[in-house]
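Researcher: Batch entry, complex prediction.
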Amino acid sequence: MRETIINVLEDIELSSPIFIEALPGIGHVGKLAADHIIDELKAVKFAELYSPSFPPQVLVDEDGIVEPMRNEFYYLRDAGEDERDYIILVGNTQGLSLEGQYEICGMILDFVEGYGARRIFTLGGLATGQPVEKARVYGAATSMELVEDLKEHGVIMRSADGGIIGASGLLLGMGRLRGMEGVYLMGETPGYFIDAEAARALLEVLLEMTKLEVDLEKLEERAEETKKMISKAQQMEQEMIERMNLKPGEEDLRYIG
Amino acid sequence: MRETIINVLEDIELSSPIFIEALPGIGHVGKLAADHIIDELKAVKFAELYSPSFPPQVLVDEDGIVEPMRNEFYYLRDAGEDERDYIILVGNTQGLSLEGQYEICGMILDFVEGYGARRIFTLGGLATGQPVEKARVYGAATSMELVEDLKEHGVIMRSADGGIIGASGLLLGMGRLRGMEGVYLMGETPGYFIDAEAARALLEVLLEMTKLEVDLEKLEERAEETKKMISKAQQMEQEMIERMNLKPGEEDLRYIG
Amino acid sequence: MRETIINVLEDIELSSPIFIEALPGIGHVGKLAADHIIDELKAVKFAELYSPSFPPQVLVDEDGIVEPMRNEFYYLRDAGEDERDYIILVGNTQGLSLEGQYEICGMILDFVEGYGARRIFTLGGLATGQPVEKARVYGAATSMELVEDLKEHGVIMRSADGGIIGASGLLLGMGRLRGMEGVYLMGETPGYFIDAEAARALLEVLLEMTKLEVDLEKLEERAEETKKMISKAQQMEQEMIERMNLKPGEEDLRYIG
Amino acid sequence: MRETIINVLEDIELSSPIFIEALPGIGHVGKLAADHIIDELKAVKFAELYSPSFPPQVLVDEDGIVEPMRNEFYYLRDAGEDERDYIILVGNTQGLSLEGQYEICGMILDFVEGYGARRIFTLGGLATGQPVEKARVYGAATSMELVEDLKEHGVIMRSADGGIIGASGLLLGMGRLRGMEGVYLMGETPGYFIDAEAARALLEVLLEMTKLEVDLEKLEERAEETKKMISKAQQMEQEMIERMNLKPGEEDLRYIG
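Model: Structure tokens for the complex:
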């Protein structure tokens, strides 16, 4: 395998889908939120992405079965009050090399644009490194109009205190260059554990903005389950990615060459 | 040399060969086991693989002769009670760069599939970091059926406590995506020395599963010999690869970009 | 995105333009100087460069809007006493990978040569690591004739005490191989803060050499403004690049593969 | 610049030239020896190699003139008692990335093979890390015959105590795969300074083996001169390469990915 590939499992047509990205990151916040939507609304997997820029390894699940590193695309049709279509991207890893991240994010945008997606939500966590009383939601966006929209939903702008490293940032930046619009939502979390509270705060904003209807009751339960299902290897993976999403000011030179 | 290449030394045909991989790793367990099969059953080398992702160096043997970094393919015909064909992969290194590992493993799978291989055994060691009284064998597999099969042979599933980094994991993961089935067998070893006992435990399971017949008497002797033959450079190489096969939980960011 | 691209925003023709490069570096000296010229003389942006060798991230501005990593080309027509044309290159990052730096600098030279540029100024800072009483200007050049020219303008040759790492060095070196001539000007700075004094010293030499006329009065003000506008992420970025421009003698192995 | 290139400066024909490589390494031993041959026998530069895998920088010479990173090919015609032709490769750097080293060495071999070269000498230093009373010469070779030849010239085989990292090793290993024969000669040196004595010991063996006639009187003088001419940047470069040529047993993971 010399290049990133996307295997399409089901040929579908979608109508101007909203694209939601939640690859692994700080405190599993985005992933937990997206997995919850996928399960509760029974989203359907229709494509898988594999890349030589993923870690050269496999995970082993609780049964002892090997699981390749991959990203997975799900779709939802006529969902929520607005009856919109959605593409949701989750996975067990992100690209790790400099050029790999750009290649993968470019392919993801090509792929979802092919289905008519013009709007992006990227989901993640913002690590505080200390206990969080009530998780707030931070954000950034591709336009002033969307910034105002975020503020109306109680999101705090992450203005002037940091960049966004990894797929959540790149997808917005590269999307913006193609005329796509998008927002980044981060649930505040101490980090370093599966944080259902941060995911709940994040989901509340996302559901309000998209008018998706998802029962949040089982979120805590899912967090517990996720905790059990996630092998140590995945936690290792997780920590690795968290380090790539360091808060600014911390030293991180890992993506240099 | 810009790309990985395979030089075929002998044109052969094989009938649905079983593919056994044992590139350098923890405690030389897999390599020792595979070298023993190759020598005892007089397997024949028929191809060599060279890659720009191998370390940019050569080894020097005991006579002072330079030896390029490479992987080597051997075959066996009508071997064991089942009279099966085999392809066995050994070598003095693994690919070291992120993308290199994927490129090399993809080429290896293309190559053995070309001979009709659909079943894979990957061999390695599981480092305990402390003395091992009686070496157990750990494993993982590409399907529930194979997991059950492994358990029947006394193999302990490595469930939920770790991923598999390097060629042994990638070949299974990438093979699974092509519909190939496979298992990973790890001999328990303290690590950091040539461990004949771990290789013996591993071989006992492998021979039982494949019905290959190999005399294990000279294994201890071979371990001693290997110890002498292996230059410090190879040990350096070995340590490097061991670090790439770290147990989960230990910090290893070396394959990041 | 697999390769560096240049998006041309405006089709222009220029007459033998002088090419000035001031990508981020030590103490923001070069960038501050070039931004000042661009603003005071109302240079016009006509092209943007994006690269998969830039950090895989976006910046967030003070409003909360994401800003992709990029380099930007501006032009000036009939500027200064000599009525010369200019191309000025600024940006929020440099390429970070080994091969990326070469690819990007090669593309930049191809691009400006296409407009007829044959002469290069690269601007940067020279970090002293301690307070600077009166900022001096250091330099290097592609020919003895230019070295003499620099000396006549009071520039101190950086002879025999160091190399030039990053775009400022590579553009001169690769340009020289194409028969382009160029000089490197470095304003002396303690480093690690936005240094208006170093930028002023640098600009005084540059304006003298090019006969450009730029009011330097607002430079201090601009430095203050820049300080405020630069997010922590950009500072992080900045520090990263500064480390790539280490003074010789300091240990820096970061660009090793 | 996306790929390694060789610029031919003079079209020449050579008759079965012997290829001598002496890129920067431990204690400048090989480089000093090769530079001495080039100057004393007035070898002529006929080609230059540039690579995106070289460090992204330029050096600055004592006059303040920038010097690109490059390797340089010289030739000698009808030299020594045997009236043989020679190609000598020197330079101010080696490739630094994993894949870059393989690409560059492959191109070098293609290039010299095009002139009919079938025999290689690679020159370097062997760092002892402590004072050396009388510099010995260590070696390795591509065949048993050459090993015997080396022993007859008093060279000590480096058997079983180490690999050869970098161009000197790769050129022999990759050359051997093409049926070229070669030897590696290392002058024993404390390392970390320009070592004329190690270069003299090395040259004595090389001259004996090739029957080249070179006056060694000015070697000490040249070492002094080299010391002065080499900028701190080059020393930095030198140290970097030395670390890539570490003695086995020392930890060096820098060429991983």
